[in-house]
UniProtKB/TrEMBL annotation, chains A, B, C:
Membrane topology: Multi-pass membrane protein
Protein name: Microsomal glutathione S-transferase 1
Enzyme class: transferase
Organism: Branchiostoma lanceolatum (Common lancelet)
Recorded GO MF terms: glutathione transferase activity
Keywords associated with the record: Acetylation, Endoplasmic reticulum, Membrane, Mitochondrion, Mitochondrion outer membrane, Transferase, Transmembrane, Transmembrane helix
First-listed, main subcellular location of the protein, grouped into a coarse class: endoplasmic reticulum
Amino acid sequence: MASAGLSFGNPLFAAYAAYASLVILKMFFVTGATAYFRYSRGVFANPEDVKRRLKKGAVPRLDHPEVERVRRLHLNDLENIPAFLAVGLLYVLTGPSPGVALWHFRVFTAARCLHTLSYLAAVQPWRALGFGAGLLTTISMAVQVLMAGTL
Amino acid sequence: MASAGLSFGNPLFAAYAAYASLVILKMFFVTGATAYFRYSRGVFANPEDVKRRLKKGAVPRLDHPEVERVRRLHLNDLENIPAFLAVGLLYVLTGPSPGVALWHFRVFTAARCLHTLSYLAAVQPWRALGFGAGLLTTISMAVQVLMAGTL
Amino acid sequence: MASAGLSFGNPLFAAYAAYASLVILKMFFVTGATAYFRYSRGVFANPEDVKRRLKKGAVPRLDHPEVERVRRLHLNDLENIPAFLAVGLLYVLTGPSPGVALWHFRVFTAARCLHTLSYLAAVQPWRALGFGAGLLTTISMAVQVLMAGTL
């Protein structure tokens, strides 16, 4: 019984948990990338941040191309990763074929890593491919959860 | 026992799962709307996206009114939908009256659809009404979860 | 058995649920703060909002320092709180030491409250401290979930 529900005794749940935490750590990598660009470029959004840097004449800046790029990447993460986290958990409970489910988790995680790296490197169409693959995987799970549920 | 917890054998969980996936698919509709406006208006945020469109003289643009409208709508989704997804799941486990709980899920889902459509159509006060109803529903669930929990 | 899983009979889950709803209500406090600054300062992002205020000559504005400050704070919440909600739930299921787990939830909640208040008050390094403590707590839980899961 336990092996079909939300417990680490259920191999599919254990896989979901691992990929969920991986993709969250990947998102925090973007948090770190934002911090890296802000500090290395000396670009901060708030007056109190600029003041601490002790640079004469520094002003808050909201339009630095590299920092704004990372922020757009981060926002795209927010548009996709929490949805995956919620839908993936519900999907585990629909009792899917373990092999198929595992590939949903793997493709999503790989797709978001591809998206992150190609956004930072500014290369297309890899970024679009990563974004699209992640989105389609989540939609596939959401449709299966919707069919298993009752409105 | 199973019918009171997180399994599709529990009718209330099955309802939560269905509304959760609906509201996620609605959010992805906004993702699609952003793509539609970007492509149809030729408005992209990154230099590498503009380059691929093969339009001479095209530059990245961050201030197109229609695109920015969809982006604000999307951000409002992010401020409300992940909170609903998390709180709704915990709320199912507090053992609420099924009828009352079902209406929480329905009102939230309908409210976010109203918010989305009225944001796109730029009509008030419907947008504010949809936003407020969704927020109040989530607060109601969060308060009930807080009372069932222990700090 | 029930006391080790996702049910309010499990004291650790009951604690997670309480802190999760607290932190969501805190996030909605920021939603309220945005509304407060928008109304009190008369700063709205959409033409249809300005029209309803019945002020002659009012135009949508996207660069008011106080409103943009609250919006940056809100975005930082979105970058951290949904991740905590997902990882915290999975972390409960890894069977951690209850005392250690409880402090993870408490530190995260206190850290996000500190971050919110010090962002609104524009004081550093308290904001950075709140942000960092919340992030480290979530990373700690994510790593433990990753180790309990299977890729």
